[in-house]
Amino acid sequence: MLKVTALFKEYSDADHQTVQAAQNITFEVPQGTLFTLLGPSGCGKTTTLRSIAGLEKPDSGQISFEEQILYSSEKKISVPPNRRNFGMVFQSYAIWPHMNVF
What we know:
- This protein has 102 residues and is mainly β.
- The chain contains 1 helix and 5 strands, in the order ββαβββ.
- The protein has a single domain (2-83), classed as Rossmann fold (3-Layer(aba) Sandwich).
- A hairpin with a 2-residue loop joins strand 3 (60-65) and strand 4 (68-72).
- The longest helix is centred in the middle third of the chain and has 9 residues, at 45-53.
- The model has no long low-confidence stretch (mean pLDDT 89).
């Protein structure tokens, strides 16, 4: 089971304003279950996925898979991305640039 608990990540934008990318994200995904993150642009979907994959370091929270803790701000654990066994397919708006909806 993938378990994300109280995940929090914020950034500073170009104007040095704080942007809260992921705010208290908590969910569990049982093994063999399909799970979708759905929400408007800027709500933290990509930040959450990048945190699970280890490409982003959250400010706080915990991520575990089965019995292994992959990230914990409290326990100071951060397993490197190459040891997490998670993959990620990056989004591209131009997968088929020669096609349209019709």
